[in-house]
Structure formats: structure tokens, C-alpha cells
Amino acid sequence: MRPARLxxxxxxxxxxxxxxxxxxxxxxxxxxxxLASRTPLxxxxxxxxxxxxxxxxxxxxxxDMTVALFDRARIDPPGPSGRYxxxxxxxIDRATGVQSVTTRGMEQRIGAVVRERYRDFELRPxxxxxxxxxxxxxxxxxxxxxxxxxxxxxxxPRPNVYRIWAVLGDLRTGKVVSHETxxxxxxxxxxxxxxxxxxxxxxxxxxxxxxxxxxxxxNPGDPIDPRYLEALQAxxxxxxxxxxxxxxxxRQALSFYQAALQQPGGDQLKVRNGIYLSNRALGDAxxxxxxxxxxxxxxxxxxxxxxxxxxxPGTTEFWPNxxxxxxxxxxxxQIAHRTAPRDVCLAMVGHASPTGSAAWxxxxxxxxxxxxxxxxxxxEAVLARRTEAEGAGAAAPLVGTGTDDLADALDRRVEFAPxxxxxxxxxxxx
Length: 430
Prior knowledge:
Residues 1-20 form the signal peptide. The protein has 430 residues and is an alpha/beta fold.
């Protein structure tokens, strides 16, 4: 068996070609109308400047980005009210797709700037009711880069500079109307996941995250990714669920996640994580275990599941605090029980955070994957021949800060990847 490889989705470029209509009359008029529809709308503020290509404080970088985003927007006029409705789909970390302390702070700062400077925009909550009014929607992300003014992300540990960017999309037209970027000093960025994402036991590179980031990459006039538009109602329900869960209302959160699951594009890992976490918070151990089993099935069906097992620093032993590791035996039991009946083998790849030498991280990540494998085999003996443990060291960090705490827990994950077995499996199941 070979270890699973994370595949990064490339960004596609849609090119629209216009057809020329020879001659005059109706065809010529249609051509003029088509040309007019392709002519970019003027900026809201003529010759509005772009943010500087220097690393700034987070507050200043978000301010410059937000002002440019709204001043330079090429947007159709508002309706009869003379105002635009605006919603913010929570900003995310590009590599992980999660909300962090910094991305949530960015949202709050953007909201304050909008309320102070842009009175023709009415900031509304990201809910199904708000989406029904076809508002302007704001999306954005953050990623480490090699230096100020640089666009491509970097995987170098302990980044000194981050790029932040945001877009405005017009749900009336289905198009991006503005896109702006700023750069932030690395020492002011806090990548610690917010409560829901900190507590979520599993991670995967989800389709909805790819669609969100695809839209974030758009320039004025580009279409909003159709997968993102399809899942918007589900996204709003997920946002409601996260707010309820973090607000200490797990029963209400559970209802939001269950509703999201029924929406187009709603069968997401974070929805299933939310159902598990809500049942756990309600103290329903049986429902929580069933929900975690569904999390595992979701990952196995899609060929990727990363589980956040927290180990003692420098060891292959699970963290001894029951508040952290108390559910690990149940997680391992469900992974084993849900894998055993399938006609697959399972590759387990351990990862380490970028502290220590490469050789040490390689041994440590392998040892941690072996610990997990041994636990699975003790639950289901048939997995002895169908599982393999490998170590990736610190070669594929998602966060890369090397803080060795909850901020970079995903860098110490164990990934599970089902793959075809080199031998018949069905005989073992009899």
C-alpha cells in the first residue's frame, strides 16, 4: 500500500468568447447590447488606491483591504431603497478551511469599518432569511506567504508574513464585484481555531472549502462558483449551528446541523462533526458514538479522514487528560468497526509539527501512526493484514507555527485513507 497523498485543487479559469454578428439591424443591436453587458462597471470611487504591498499590523491591513474592497467595487446600483444588504460568510484559513481567532477578528473589524464608513450597506446576519433577499456577500481568507507583496502560499514553518484577501459577490447577478489583498505581519496572527473547530475531532479537505476559495480567487466580473452558490443555504445553517454550539446551546445547534444535512451541498464533514459535538455536549453518549461512526463513514466514502489525536509532546502516548483524550477509545472502536466490513485496506499516515529534527519528526510521526494501528487491530483482528502505518514527519504541515498546542493540533494529525487491497478481502470477513 502507498500513503495517501493530499491533492490540492487547481483554480480554473473560465473564458467567455463573444460572437460577432455581421451586418446591421437586430443582430447589430444585439451585439451592442452584449458588448455593453461586458463593459466593466465603474468603480464606486474613481481611481481608488489599492492597499500597500507591505506587511502591516492586522488592524491597518484589514482597514486598507476593506476600504479598497468597497471603494473599488464594480457593482450594479442598489434597489429602490438606495441601500445594499450585506452578509459575511465567515472568513477562513486557506490551508485548513477553519475559522481562527484571527479570521474572526478580521470579520469584526470589517463589520466595524462598514458600519462607520459605508452607510449605504446594511450589514445583516448570515442566515437563510438574509440570503433570500439576494444580498452582497463577503468572503475572505488568510494564508502564510514568503514575503510582503507575494501571492502564492508557502509551507515554510513559522511564517513572518501572511496574506489576507476578500471578495464581494453580488447574489443578484451571481458575479464577483470586488477583490482586494493586504499583507500582515506574522507575529500578530493567531491561527488558533475558534471553539467549534478546536473541538471538532476530524478534518478533511472539503468540496465546499474548495468552492469557497475558488470564489475568493475571482476578479470583478467572474462568476461565483456554482458549487458555492448551491450550498449557501447549508452554509448559513452551519453558521447558525456554530454560533449556537459556541454559545452553549447544543440542542439548538443540533437542530441547525440536522437541517443543514438535508440541504443541497449540506453533507459536509463539519456538519457531521457538529452533530457529534452537539450530542456529546448534551451528554447522549450513544447518539454521540453513532454520530462519530457517521463521521468515519463520511471520510471512508470520500477517501480521506484526518483525526486529531493529541499526544504527549515527544512521545507516542495519548494526552492523559480525559477532557482531551477520553473519547479516543470510542473513536478508535468506531474507525475499526466501520472499516472492517469494507472491501478495503487502510493506510495510516502520522504527521508531526515542525519542531525538532527531520529524522526525529519522522520517527515520532511513524510511532504515533503505529500506536493508532495497534489500537485498531486490537478492536478488529482482520485489520492486521489490511492496515499499514507510515510517518510523514513534518513534511505536510497545515498550520506550520510549531507552537505544539491547540493552535497547530492539525499538524499532529493521523490521516486514514482507504485504498484497494493487493489481496482478496472478502474471505477474511467470513
